[in-house]
Amino acid sequence: MFARSALRSSLVPSSRLFSTSTPRQTKVAVLGAGGGIGQPLSLLLKTDPLVSSLSLYDIRGAPGVAADVSHVDTASEVKGYAADQLDQALDGVEVVVIPAGVPRKPGMTRDDLFNTNASIVRDLATAVGRVSPSAHILVISNPVNSTVPIVASTLSKLGVFDPTRVFGVTTLDVVRASRFLSMVTGTSPAECDVPVVGGHSGATIVPLLSQTDIGKSLVGKGETYDKLVNRIQFGGDEVVKAKDGAGSATLSMAYAGAKFANALLRGLSGEKGVVTPTFVKSPLFESQGVDFFSSLVELGTKGVEKIHPLGPLSPEEEKLMEACLPELKKNIEKGKAFVA
Ligand SMILES: NC(=O)C1=CN([C@@H]2O[C@H](COP(=O)(O)OP(=O)(O)OC[C@H]3O[C@@H](n4cnc5c(N)ncnc54)[C@H](O)[C@@H]3O)[C@@H](O)[C@H]2O)C=CC1
Ligand SMILES: O=C([O-])CC(=O)C(=O)O
Questions:
Q1: With a threshold of 0.90, does the pTM exceed it?
Q2: Ligand 1 and 169: CB distance under 6 A
Q3: Is 236 annotated as a binding residue?
Q4: Where is substrate bound in this sequence (predicted)?
Q5: CA of 154 to the centre of ligand 2 (A)
Q6: 215 and 331, same structural domain?
Q7: Distance 236 CA to ligand 2 centre (A)
Q8: What is the complex's ipTM, to 2 decimals?
Q9: Active site residue ranges
Q10: pLDDT tens across the length of the chain (340 residues)
Q11: Is 130 helix (H, G, I), strand (E, B) or coil?
Q12: The domain spanning residue 195 has which CATH number?
């Protein structure tokens, strides 16, 4: 259903959802499975051959979603869990994806979601740390720049934080960058893998177009470049505005979440050279007080295998980084302070 072009580089290719090179299969949980992202994400995970078992949890609606998804004709087992069954849902899981929490409405920033989502994410991370402390946790709930430090600090308090196992899912920025660049240049998204680094909100989203064959000629070319960068940074707002109060990106996010989960599962299975951006505990800008950062990360049998350096930046990208770091630092500190 999904296979298309062959792997052209070590990067997770932009226009393909699933790739399976190895047979290892994994038990995966989705927390927030009844929601706008959770439902299509659960469906896509049901069709991922590297998933053997799906555990769907939400405070409302997960058993119904599980019954529905379970009829899809792939071999994985699906079970739904009600509000009071979180521990059962997490029993034995190796990968936990968290899209639980409220989405934005027009006029809101992602940071405006902090008050509601911080405690949801902290409580879910506490349960994962207690029931499945060696699980890999993929955080989708916003504000990602703060919710990932919340998960890390929560697990640290429990004495089970392992920086190779906690990921902020920034794949939607990569998916958007690929699609928007392809639209500007009249090329295929498959040729437009863009490393998007930094964080996941506005100015903290930094596309490194100078590092792409297709995009590098646009860098510094006035309005076309500026508009493209702005569209990648504020793609989420486009969807929030168009949905007009009914939420934010759900379908493209489910696609992006399934794509990142598949990349991780391939790495865990022993596939080499699986490299994609993700927001992790990172040494790259630690000296500047920014200890979580998204950059190209190699995924391996333990999770984070290698954090790649940023590589050469154009003067325009240096400026984007200058705007990114102070905001990202604030977002990270806010998350840590919430748990402390
Ligand atoms: N990382 C990214 O790129 C993106 C992140 N998001 C974020 O994902 C989150 C979810 O978005 P949607 O699915 O559209 O929202 P939604 O409101 O449609 O679904 C959220 C689900 O979470 C559930 N939930 C709430 N508290 C829970 C708890 N304690 N345990 C388990 N489930 C709980 C709700 O019952 C609901 O089913 C939002 O915070 C949104 O901002 C959205 C798009 C992209
Ligand atoms: O914009 C939002 O609130 C949801 C999100 O993170 C995105 O679409 O990138």
A1: yes
A2: yes
A3: no
A4: 104, 110, 142, 176
A5: 24
A6: yes
A7: 4
A8: 0.99
A9: 200
A10: 433 333 333 455 565 677 655 567 899 999 999 999 999 999 999 999 999 999 999 999 999 999 999 999 999 999 999 999 999 999 999 999 999 999 999 999 999 999 999 999 999 999 999 999 999 999 999 999 999 999 999 999 999 999 999 999 999 999 999 999 999 999 999 999 999 999 999 999 999 999 999 999 999 889 999 999 999 999 999 999 999 999 999 999 999 999 999 999 999 999 999 999 999 999 999 999 999 999 999 999 999 999 999 999 999 999 999 999 999 999 999 999 999 9
A11: helix
A12: 3.90.110.10
The answer to whether 310 and 295 have CB atoms below 8 angstroms apart is: yes
List the one residue out of 131, 130, 68, 153 whose CA is nearest residue 139: 153
Which-ligand-closest: CA of 140?
1
38 is in an annotated binding site: yes
Q: What is the DSSP string of 138-154?
A: EE-SS-HHHHHHHHHHH
Residue 82 lies in a domain: yes
231 lines ligand 2 (CB under 6 A): no
Range of the domain at 312: 171-339
Q: How many domains does the chain have?
A: 2
Torsion of CA 205, 332, 252, 41, to 10 degrees: 160
- Same domain (yes/no): 131, 101: yes
* Contact (CB, 8 A) for 138 and 260: yes
Ligand 1 neighbourhood includes 40 CB (under 6 angstroms): no
Is 141 annotated to bind ligand?
A: yes
- Ligand 1 center from residue 45 Cα (angstroms): 17
Ligand 2 within 6 A of CB of 248: yes
CA angle, corner 114, sides to 108 and 120, nearest 5?
Answer: 130
Name the residue of 142, 196, 205 to mutate for ligand 2: max ligand atoms within 8 A of Cβ. 142
Helix axes 38-46, 62-69, angle to 10 degrees: 30
